[in-house]
Amino acid sequence: MTEPHTSAKKDTRGTQRGTASVKRLNTPKLATAYQKEWFLSLREKVEAGEPLAFVNADVPQEIFRAMDIPYVVNQWWSSVCSAKQMSPYYLDLLNEHGYRQDLCRYCSLSLASAFDTEPEKGPWGGLPKPTVAVTRLTCDSQSKIFELWSKKFGVNFYALENTVPREIPNNWWELAPDKWEQLFEPHRLDHMLEDFKGLIRFLEINTGKVFSETKFKKVLQLVNEQAEYNRKTRDLISKTKPSPVSITDTVPAVMVPQWQRGTQWAVDIAKHLYEEVKGLIEAGEAVCKNERVRLMWLGRGLWFNLGFYQHFEKKYDASFMWSIYLALASDAYARYGEDPLRTLASRFVGMEDMLHMPPWNSDWYVKEAKNNNIQGAVHIISDSCTMSAGGTYFVKKAFEEANIPLLQLHADPVDSRGWDNDVMTAKIEDFIENEIGVKPC
Amino acid sequence: MEKESRSSLSKLIEAYDKRDLAAIQWSENQGQTVGFLGSEVPEELLIAAGFLPIKVAGTEKTDTRIGSVYLESGFDPMIHAQFTRLVEGSYSYLDHLIVSNSSDALIRSYYYLRALHHVEREVLFPKPFFHDFLHTKFHSSALYNRDRTKDLINQIEVWTGEPLREERIVEAIKTCNETRTLLKKMDSFRRCEQPRISGVHALKIIGASMFMEKVEFNNLLKQYLDKVSEMPVIKGVRLFVTGSSHEHTQFYEAIEREQAVIVGEDHENGSRYYEGLVDQEVDPIDGIVDRYHYRFNPSSQATVSERVASLSENVVAAKAQGVISFIYRSDDAPSWDFPEQKKILDKLGIPVLLLDKQDYKVADEKGLRKKLNQFIDEIKRNSSKNINIEGERND
Ligand code: SF4
């Protein structure tokens, strides 16, 4: 790897503004070690002439897996840059090119890194040059970011459409795995199926790769196996008091494999996580042996500061034991059906509704809060992202009705420049002490 | 004669300024009114059903704090204003409400409006119906849009209790096309060498067509246009407005007070509203879908290069001497367009002023005036057009 820069401007590269987490489990260590190795081997492959796809998080990566097209997920790369404390440097570059400070920081870090004149000095040698870019039009900025990005590299990009439901289902999580034809309106599934076929043809033409139906079926099966392990892990944690793990452990242990889904490695690591959590429980291990508060972290992870949560464990015996990542991996991914491509469409067609749209998300949060015996929820809202807003009024109302205290905080999950650790800590402390009613240990 | 033209103008202005008046009168006369949010709602179908379609809009008097109880700051202030007017009950006279997917913020507003119906005991607006209309130009989108338009017809038939007859649709298409043709003609009196219609008046006239009955609007506009060539020429620096949309005229007024005239704009309450006719020679549903699908996309639904191409084309056609990119806070789409738009305008030698992170109402009139003055003076001093004034940032 190249040496760090020495010029004044480049000194900002890797500025430490958050703290890394102390890991309780071995699974996240295995996962993070694997992702680095995987990325380095991906670099090698791409340098040897393999195609590379750059995709947004809500793009059906299973299709790329079935076509043997290596891919990098936009938000995963954001989280890596952020964890490496490089987001201030990259985002400053974006601003220097005329884009305003608070513009879509969560999704624009990769574009920002493309403005770097020394891209090889990025995390793990930087992103290799892609062959194609694929996004989904779930907000106004996606097509802008991906078009700008693809033009920068002179590659083609494909935008998948996003459709909107008219029906509000009850308990979507019960219907999602097998009764998804009931859950999603047929015209939305039909359209997504067509869109996926268009994507496959686009990839065939642009990468020269072949879509293997046989491999695709295997990929779907592996994703379901991974989701089932995640579900078992989530269920285990939810009913165990004190909680054996916190989100500091589970977020990397779930999200690294999430971007590798459809591989045997991802199934194995999900299984490893389950067994490790089970082992901790059997050994009587816990985040806080004298657990006094179980907390939920609603919204995106604080990628540059995953160690943030540990302060509250020490001070209050409070464990942040729930995040959307494991819960969504448990409830939103498994799909069983006859037609493989339509089954895949059912995984993606409502993802945005489940995550960000009330009452889909608010109902689900409350169901999860109850199942996990949650005593308080901290909801992080990024003001620079319409998508992450997620119906804060409705979330608040749902928690009020469920009698669960909720704190709504405004912060950007990847841009550490605006993060004030002391202020945020004080707000959560105040919430724990005065809303939940737990004093320091 | 000039007097006659003025009186038709004042009626149009009145319809714009008192934007609920026509709809309330329509309701009182037992007609059904349909509010629409978003620019893909085919007014033709609503008119064919005998409804009065009314655009849901804020006004410069709207206190957006009410909307802010429900919407986060990631939503732009125009959406806050529209949402406010719905939840505070300004549109309680509506029989129906349709939302389409012109922007992400609008789509999310639909979820919120619908969720309010789901969780609140009392709401002061009708249950929203979503018209899901896709913007990519793929064939699959064109087919999807046809099917969703048929769904909308089904919904309309439920509302009226009778089938929507084709001849009524054909008739409504004719009326709406006439509106567009007349507005296009009005536009020619702005883009020509000697403009006779100000930007403020243009914005009000275009807006009036969304707040009143179309046949009446067409008659008034015809009367006005018959005499407009006799109106005095408006002198001033020719400016083009891009960026966010405008549903009140405060900002336009501020510009035109400074010896400038707005000769065009590309937002949804401007020329995009009357861009493109429905083909009257084809199946009416095909004609309607294609017209709404193949217009140039608003910033929220377009790629940067589409916006760059459409801006440079429009600015050249309007013979603008300068461009103002006015962008509401949290309106991310035009902010993504701006740096590339500036590059092309620089190449064309057309100066551009960026007014970023703006509020719904002009907050700092003095500050705005100073910026506008500086920009306009600079253009005047460099009449050769080969100048380059840096856009200002408010970051
Ligand atoms: S609005 Fe949110 S999801 Fe969309 S590009 Fe911006 S940061 Fe990403």
What does this structure look like?
The complex is a heterodimer of chains A (441) and B (395). By secondary structure, chain A is of the alpha/beta class. Chain A has a single domain (46-436), classed as Rossmann fold (3-Layer(aba) Sandwich). Helix content of chain A is 52%, strand content 9%. In chain A, the strands form two sheets. Chain A has a four-stranded parallel β-sheet with strand order 2-1-3-4, with helices on both faces. Chain A has a four-stranded parallel β-sheet with strand order 6-5-7-8, sandwiched between helices. In chain A, α1 (27-47) packs parallel to α11, α4 packs across α5 and α11 runs antiparallel to α12 (264-282). The model of chain A is unreliable at 1-11 (pLDDT under 50). In chain B, the strands form two sheets. Chain B has a four-stranded parallel β-sheet with strand order 2-1-3-4, sandwiched between helices. Chain B has 15 helices and eight strands. Chain B starts with a helix and ends in a 14-residue tail after the last helix. Chain B has 395 residues and is an alpha/beta fold. In chain B, 51% of the residues lie in helices and 11% in strands. Chain B has a domain at 24-165: 3-Layer(aba) Sandwich (Rossmann fold), CATH 3.40.50.11890. The interface between A and B is large, with 48 and 54 residues. The complex binds iron/sulfur cluster. The site of iron/sulfur cluster has 11 residues of chain A, from α5, α6 and α18.
